[in-house]
Amino acid sequence: MSGHGAPVTHAGELDGTELTVAVVAASWHDTIMAGLLDGARRALRDARVGNVIEVRVPGSFELPVAARRVAERADAVVALGVVIRGGTPHFDYVCSAATTGLTDVSVVSGKPVGFGVLTCDTEEQGLDRAGLEGSNEDKGYEAAEAAVRTALTLRGLGV
């Protein structure tokens, strides 16, 4: 299981009342995305985030440009998507572009980006990580919690 070794935390320990967090989510794979979005929303509610902006884009490839734009108005961004391997190298290009692009958004903007982009070999792997009933992991929740924790850490540094 990929969550092995993850820190045991809960967003309810956080006070995000003064934060604005943007959730940028892809549209492919409806069921998996619904789970990821629900998890992110729960984490942001648990952390008492004061303002949430939601933006939907067609796919994971489009996440970085939307994340960059919305980072201008937010303290943190949560990027959610899923890419499932097919029979062509398309998977590798989209995963690489999304990962590099979202990393660049974080570094250039100085805003944390919670990485909730699932890169899976099968749809079953995505469902298992989507936070749905019967899933072993809740990557939407984890990505949102990470973004909030990092935003609060940066705020605590005074930068």
Q: Quick check: average pLDDT?
A: 93
Percent strand equals 15-25%
> How many β-strands, per DSSP?
4
Briefly note the structural class of the backbone: alpha/beta
Tell me about the largest β-sheet: 4 strands, parallel
Shape: globular
Q: Secondary-structure element order, as H and E?
A: EHEHEHEHH
Number of helices: 5
Report low-confidence residues grouped into runs of 5 or more: none
Radius of gyration, in Å, reads: 15 Å
Overall helicity: 40-55%
Task: Write up what this structure looks like.
With about 160 residues, the chain is an alpha/beta fold. It has five helices and four strands. The chain has helices at about 30-45, 65-70, 90-110, 125-130, 140-155, and strands at about 20-25, 50-55, 75-85, 115-120. It has a four-stranded parallel sheet, with helices on both faces. Helix 1 (about 30-45) links the parallel strand 1 and strand 2 (about 50-55). Helix 1 runs parallel beside helix 5 and helix 2 runs parallel beside helix 3. The longest helix has 20 residues, at about 90-110.
Topology:
Layout: E1 20-25, H1 30-46, E2 51-56, H2 63-71, E3 76-84, H3 90-109, E4 113-120, H4 123-129, H5 139-157
Helix pairs in contact: 1-5, 2-3
Compose a concise summary of this entry.
By secondary structure, the chain is α/β, with parallel strands linked by helices. It has 5 helices and 4 strands; from the N terminus they run E-H-E-H-E-H-E-H-H. The mean pLDDT is 93.
Observed structural traits:
5 helices, 4-stranded parallel beta sheet, 45% helix
